[in-house]
């Protein structure tokens, strides 16, 4: 990822409220299209100028050719707040985050965790993120549904990692069980992405717990019951199971690895 700064400047009298709403509307559009990453975007005011620090999945993220219809609308609305078109500059490579994949994509997987704020769509070759703006819009012109799913998955992951309360078990069920709302939403999004990109797309089923390593290895595919989805060697040191029919990958419980 790259750290960048987006610069806004007023060209006529306006109000802080109008400026704040216009800038936040644009930032939300960028976020829902996968062009900027994260959830919080502090806006620094310096007289008639405003600056926002953001993370970009790749250097070309803010190019106009990547803009969604919603981003284009948001850019037009800046005029109502008496703001000039924004200028952006790359500050440098962010050392604490992953860079976008550079390898050919033969298969991909929806995979995230509460410590990642990069794209949840990963290249199956190296598990590095694929910027969402580089794939066709999934619903209604952008990728808001994917971002929403990712936010919910990460919230459940953080709850189950923190543990020590009843919410841990409810969150874990959302991550593991194929009949949970979160699993169904993610698996359906996976199918939509595969249809649009014409690339095999898998969904990651999180696994923890179990009775023993032997019991874990005998675990069948949770969707079709395939008993032969255990791999001889784990993919990317994470995925021990892979069902090509159901497009699901999973892990042996981390307690036994």
Structure in words:
By secondary structure, the chain is of the alpha+beta class. The chain folds into two domains: 2-93, Alpha-Beta Plaits, CATH 3.30.70.100; 108-256, no CATH class. It contains six helices and ten strands. It has helices at 16-32, 69-77, 144-162, 166-176, 181-197, 213-217; strands at 2-9, 43-46, 49-56, 87-93, 108-110, 121-123, 201-205, 230-235, 239-243, 248-250. It has a six-stranded mixed β-sheet with strand order 6-5-7-10-9-8, with helices on one face. Strands 2-3-1-4 form a four-stranded antiparallel β-sheet, with no helix packed on it. Strand 2 and strand 3 (49-56) form a beta hairpin. The longest helix is centred in the middle third of the chain and has 19 residues, at 144-162.
Report the principal-axis shape.
elongated
The percentage of residues in β strands lies in: 15-25%
The largest β sheet comes out as: 6 strands, mixed
In total, how many domains does the architecture comprise? 2
Largest beta sheet: strand ordering: 6-5-7-10-9-8
